[in-house]
Each structure stands twice: as C-alpha cells, then as structure tokens.
Design goal:
Helix 5 crosses helix 10. The strands form five sheets. Strands 2, 4, 5, 7, 8, 9, 10, 11, 12, 13 and 14 form an eleven-stranded mixed β-sheet that branches. A four-stranded antiparallel β-sheet has the order 15-16-21-20, with no helix packed on it. The chain has a four-stranded antiparallel β-sheet with strand order 19-18-22-24, with no helix packed on it. The N and C termini lie far apart (about 60 Å). The chain is an alpha+beta fold. The chain folds into three domains: about 80 residues, Immunoglobulin-like (Sandwich), CATH 2.60.40; about 240 residues, Rossmann fold (3-Layer(aba) Sandwich), CATH 3.40.50.1110; about 90 residues, no CATH class.
C-alpha cells in the first residue's frame, strides 16, 4: 500500500511536471527579439524560437504574415521577406497558444560588433582603465532614438541587468546602464546620422580573450587549426577557452538578420606571440561567422591594433617586431573581398596604455569603411595611403601609393618612420620626399637599397596622411624572417 506521504509527493511532482510542460508549450522567441529592436532592411529576416512540438506559430509584421508548425524538438523559424526602411514604430506579433507582442520595432541597418577589451571598453569609466576621451560630454549628448543598442553580457557577469539582453533606444541612461562599447557606439552614431535610417548595434565582446574562443568547434576541422581546440589557456574566469565564446556570445544571436560585422581583437594573440598563424585564424572566423548568419558576402571590418610597447612588459613574450608582424597578418586577412581595416596609429597618446582612450577615431574609421564600401558613399574616403607598388632606382627606392590624394604630413615635417636596407638586411633610417602620390627614399648608409619598411615598430606613430587625414598603412617590402618572440617569465594572458 502506498503511503499518504508518497501520494502527496507524487501529486506535487505531477503539478511541477504540468507546470514545466505548460511553460514549454508557450511560444517563445530568441533573446534578440524584444521591444525597440531594429530589423535589417532589404534582406530576408529570420524570426525563431521555441514552442510545443507541432504547435502552429504565426508571425506578423509590416503587412506580412508567416505561419509554421514547430518541429518535433520544439524549435520553429519563419523568414520574413525583405523589408523596406522604416523609422515608424510598429508592432511585431508572434502567436501560438499565447501571444507575444514586440513594440516600437524599426527597420534599418544592423551590425554585430565583437572582440576583446578595446571593443568592450565602454563610453565612460571602467575599473582599471582610463575613461574614454570626452566621455562625460559624449554621454550627456547621446540622445539618438533611431540608434538602438543591444548589449550581450559577458558570461561571467549578471545576465539579467536592466541594460543587457534588450534593445535600448540610445540615450545617456541606456549608455550608462549597458556599459556599451564606445567604438561600436561611435560607429553606429556616425552611420545613423549619415544615412538617416535606423541603426541597431549588437555588441558582444570579452576582454583578454583569444580568437580561438570566438571560433566554432567545426572550424578546428581545418588541418591548419586541428588540435588547437584542445589547448587550455591561462584565464581568470571560466568560459573563455577555445569555442566557448562562440557558443555563449555568438551562436545564440545568429542568424538574426544583419548587414555586417565589426571586429577589434588581437592583443592577446599578439602577446603569445601568434602572428604567423593569426591571418588564417581570422580568415577562418570570417568564413564561419558568415556561414552562421547565412550571409556569404557580409562585410567584415576590423581594426589594426594600436601602437603599444609590448616588448617593455616582462609578462609578454614579444620583441618590438611582433606587433608590426601582427599588423601584417591582420592586413592579409582583411584584404579579401568585402573586408577592410581601420588604421588608428594617430589616435594614441599613451604608448604604455593598451586601452587607448580615443575610441571615437576607431568608430569613425570603421564607419568610413561601411559608408564607402557597403553603402556606396564614394565621397566618404575610407582608406589611408596604402603602398601600391615599389621599385629600386639606383640609390633610391620609389614608393607609389593608392588612396594618396593630398599626401602630406600632419606636422609639415618630412615623413617619418621609413627605413631601408641593402643586401646585408640591416635597416637604417631613410630620408623620405613626397611628390604627388609617390615617396622616394634615400639613405647615405645604404647606397644599394633592396628593401624598405614603414612604421615597422610597435610604437610607430608616423606623420604621413592623405587629404582627409587618414594615416598611412604600415608595410614591409621584404619577406625576411622576423624575430617576434623572446622567453617569457610570467603569464601571457591579458586582462580586460
């Protein structure tokens, strides 16, 4: 005979099971679907979530209605047809056994911004870092209702704060509550003000993390990356090992319709040092992120790391050549179609601070890339002087530049940070002379030059600019071996 206590316990468990079942039967949407969201214009728009298996789910927005039955595992997904730009607030409804209503929904441009601490750095104060330049005035003036911000919380932080996991119309309060990325904010503000359309930015960054953490498990099937997913790195919090941040901070937000990606990462990989393999890792990440978002040509714009004296820090295992070699890797990966990179060597005032405080220059340079190359605003210059070709002419080296209209120096002094070498591979400072879009290099110590380098040093802040003030891109014409590592005595991991 069953005891009364067991009967009561069984009844209670049954009630719990019914409650859980009822909750599971409710129609739910993925995390990105909230009030105030921005949907991507001119592209198919996936809407997805969970419901009871077989349950009919209907999504309605902008005179479109789509209905589908939930799969046996309880997941469902519909895709809205491409939407026209709209700044008029409208409702999106999702109906099943229950109804979800999302209000103040706009249609415009959506971008996904990610990386480590320099992308994560907020428009304001952060413990252990100097505040961003002019943050108090910038925050006070940040009333841009057509700019919407979605903050993905780090996996080691609270997931239910008022400023995370919900779309927020940009305001001083929203920036403070979300600790939103300063670089991503300046990008979004610039694009929104220039195009005059709603803009949404999804921000998911985690300071001190390697690129391997942002790659999916399937990326390591690549023979060049095989085995790296099993490595474990020094870390002060859990959840930042290979593949883990892709699982927690990237995959849940795909394939929410977006225009493209912003990426500011690499300091931790640079300090390993990892320059020789980083280009392939970044190329692999771009391919897999595009695949996750089902958008093979999605623009992907990155930031060349800022000048910084890595070699002066005992805990890093690098020489002063590691950072320029890393720039070379970044440039290689971000020179493919539908990619680009921002150079910020002129935006650093403290070469001993790994978190430069001028984040407006970062956001604005990324915005230039998007405006020129994604949105066809050809009047907006996007790239600084870039080496197009070079030749040896007797005792001189002649460099020809692209994107060099109005080539000049910001201090009206001769161009700095050029060096040349002869067959002995010993580099000496060179005298540089500008003539239209070319620069000639000479050096009395190198009467027969065979190679040239520019800004090939970790703290190089050269003075060469084009007409609109964009700085020249670092380069080297040689392929000689570069020593980038030295014995390290302490942890190689960067903290945010």
């Amino acid at each position: 005979m069953i005891s009364p206590a067991l009967l009561r316990r069984g009844f209670s468990l049954g009630l719990v099971a019914l409650f859980v079942s009822a909750l599971h039967a409710e129609v739910r949407c993925a995390k990105l679907f909230t009030d105030h969201m921005v949907l991507q214009r001119e592209r198919p728009v996936p809407i997805w979530g969970t419901a009871a298996p077989g349950e009919r789910v209907t999504v309605a927005f902008a005179e479109q209605t789509k209905t589908i039955a939930a799969r046996p595992d309880g997941t469902w997904r519909v895709t809205l047809d491409p939407l026209a730009t709209s700044a008029a607030p409208r409702e999106l409804t999702v109906r099943g056994t229950n109804t979800l209503t999302f209000s103040d929904v706009l249609v415009g441009e959506v971008w996904f911004a990610s990386g480590q601490s320099n992308m994560e750095k907020p428009l304001g104060e952060r413990k252990g870092q100097k505040p961003t330049l002019g943050y108090d005035l910038e925050i006070a003036a940040a009333n841009y209702p057509l700019l919407r911000l979605f903050q993905v919380p780090r996996t080691d932080l609270k997931q239910d704060g008022p400023g995370v996991l919900r779309w927020l119309p940009c305001s001083p309060e929203a920036l403070r509550e979300s600790n939103f990325s300063a670089a991503a904010y300046f990008f979004g503000r610039n694009v929104q003000q220039t195009l005059g359309v709603p803009v949404g930015i999804i921000h998911a960054s985690f300071g001190g993390t390697r690129i391997e953490a942002w790659l999916p498990a399937e990326a390591f099937a690549d023979p060049q990356l095989a085995g790296l997913e099993k490595e474990r790195y020094p870390a002060w919090v859990p959840g930042v090992q290979p593949t883990e941040l892709f699982q927690s901070m990237v995959r849940p937000y795909a394939p929410f319709a977006i225009r493209g990606f912003l990426w500011y990462q690499g300091e931790t990989n640079c300090t390993v040092p990892d320059s020789d393999r980083y280009a392939h890792k970044l190329t692999t990440l771009i391919a897999h992120w595009r695949r996750a978002w089902e958008n093979a040509d999605a623009p992907f714009y990155g930031v060349l790391l800022a000048p910084f004296d890595y070699s002066k820090w005992e805990k890093f295992g690098t020489t002063d050549q590691a950072l320029p070699r890393f720039w070379q890797a970044q440039i290689e990966a971000l020179s493919a179609p539908h990619t680009g990179y921002a150079v910020i060597s002129d935006g650093v005032d403290d070469l001993h601070d790994i978190h430069p405080v001028n984040k407006r220059v970062v956001g604005d340079r990324l915005a230039r890339l998007a405006l020129h190359e994604t949105f066809g605003r050809t009047a907006v210059a996007a790239r600084g002087p870039t080496l197009a070709s070079w030749k040896v002419d007797g005792a001189t080296i002649v460099l020809t530049y692209a994107h060099a209209e109005g080539l000049h120096t910001r201090d009206r002094l001769p161009p700095t940070d050029f060096v040349v070498a002869g067959a002995d591979r010993v580099f000496h400072p060179a005298t540089a002379v500008i003539k239209e879009n070319t620069i000639t290099l000479t050096c009395p110590d190198v009467p027969a030059p065979v190679a040239a380098r520019f800004a090939w040093h970790e703290i190089a802040t050269p003075n060469l600019l084009n007409r609109v003030g964009l700085p020249a891109v670092p380069f080297r014409t040689d392929e000689w071996p570069v020593k980038i590592n030295r014995p390290a005595t302490k942890s190689l991991e960067l903290r945010p």
